[in-house]
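Re: export button greyed out
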Amino acid sequence: MRTLIYLLIGILFGITMFKSEAASWFRIYEMFQFQSFHMYGIIGSALGLGIIITQAIKRFNIKSIYGEKIEFQPKDKAFKRYMFGGILFGLGWALAGACPGPMYTLIGVGYLPVLVVLIAAIFGTFLYGLLKDKLPH
Amino acid sequence: MNWIFEPWPWYISGPMIAFIMLLLLLVGKRFGMSSNLRTICTMCGAGKKADFFKFDWKSQRWGLVVIIGAAIGGYIGANFLSNDIAVAINPTTIENLNALGFESAGKAYLPTELFDNSVFSDFKGLLLLIIGGLFVGFGARYAGGCTSGHAISGLSNLQLPSLIAVIGFFAGGLLMIHVLFPLIF
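Workaround output, generated via the alternate export path:
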């Protein structure tokens, strides 16, 4: 039953990523050229509502449907890892035009070359795991 | 209901993303997609090479189910919920892209120059996809999250680390599009 719920949420996410065109390389390029409000509107409205949802859950102590407390794990206090990691991610995001969510959506649409991006991203994650202790965090 | 078959405007798409985050929180999970790349590494045995991958991947199975759903959602969106999938980007953007050699701008969902199957016999295109993917995977884990985990979930929780990461995402993206693209294409 839980698996089915996760699957349905994933399907809703995939449809949204495709139909919003947030999965389109062209929209990412257009966003970084500041030539459309579209992506900013998506991220901005998701974030605005996201802040309200998150703060409401915390303030009113809203529980999950299984009655458990909803936890928000704070990220480690640091600067370098977020800035350096963020810049590297941004370079890849703009080049491949896909973040780690829409990649699966695009593969589902049938764009086989996105499989190359996904396999490379898995390998990139693996490389990070190998080099983690040598990198500034 | 005809709007469903048109590209969704931002004021439907953005709230839908917030709604998906809410659904995941309500089932006791969180909205973050890049962690799945680490889970896949662990499933493939990466724990033998680095401690970073030593964890019980089965506890993260829910995330893998979500991404399988994301792929199915893409199939449904493209095949059953769309009349025309060409992305109507700004005409100025189309001109810019034409000048860089992207003839498919304004006529497709993804540039055929990079995402048509013919790229498998195009060394440069393939190399760019591999480099892009490597940076996405490496950068997301280094920064501890991607667009979903930091820009939506993290900023929604008003976390400073996520703000730094999102500034990094944009700095990297702007560098790629404005400085590196004219050199690459």
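Chain A touches chain B through 113 residues (CB under 8 Å). The button fix ships in the next patch.
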